[in-house]
Write the structure tokens for this entry.
Amino acid sequence: MGISKVDLFAFAAALFCSLASEVHSEKLPIVLWHGMGDTCCFPFSLGGVKKFLESEIGVYVKSIEIGNSITEDFKSGYLVHPNQQVEMVCADLNNDTKLSNGFNGIGFSQGGQFLRAVVQRCSSLRMSNLITLGGQHQGVFGLPNCPSLSSRTCERFRQLLNYAAYTELMQNFLVQATYWHDPLDEAKYKNSSTFLGDINNERSVNQTYVDNLKKLNNFVMVRFNKDSIVQPLDSQWFGYYKPGQDKETQGLRDSEIYIQDRLGLQEMDKQNKIAFLECEGNHLQFTKEWFRRALFPYLK
């Protein structure tokens, strides 16, 4: 008995749907961006996370490296302006053909707000889900326990930031000055911040930033409840101190950025695109079990 044209068409359609389903279900590559005092490839930090994700999920994982060596990458966390870093990373990711069909992003500590800036500024990239662990989305007002630096050096950085964060010299010299957020002088912060004030649309609304951020399927923010580095803790969930003082904090939904929807976060929240996750531990301290349970569902 021969095969009719109808049967042949039905078979071809079923085969196409099956192949399309397989392609659709294929997990996306992952891009990692390290934090202050770290590099792309230390085996005890992001190098280990990269191997973990490659073995557990079986996808291409790219850990961002700024410069041409581990040393340059380490220094970049303190001395290369975030605007320059974001521009470099945007070009690098655009040139990586393995990311051309989309990818998920995971930012660690300050790498969280830097990777968000990549989403907002690099319209040509296709990031599906953005996960930030211990990110400082509303900045910091304090610099305790700096990783990978002596306590004396850390204290000098803190003093410099307290007294001169918004000078042109410091904004160009020290990365942490670009997301230093003084709640006691909001006007000065908004007018002088050369990175965070811009990507948070504090001075004016850049509609491209809004449109690009809203393209994310999920924006996942992880807060470490015993964090001794990020002050205040709520910055990890896009919250911050209430303006004019540095004691009481407010959540994202009570902030001007959300109420005025200056970044599209209110709309994203209503669409259930924003997730607030917690991890019991100090800054970036998590277990593989927690990572699997909490974050793997977003790495599709």
User: Anything to note?
Assistant: The two ends are 44 Å apart (CA to CA). Residues 5-25 have pLDDT under 50 and may be disordered. Residues 170 and 190 are 15 Å apart (CA to CA). The longest strand covers residues 127-133.
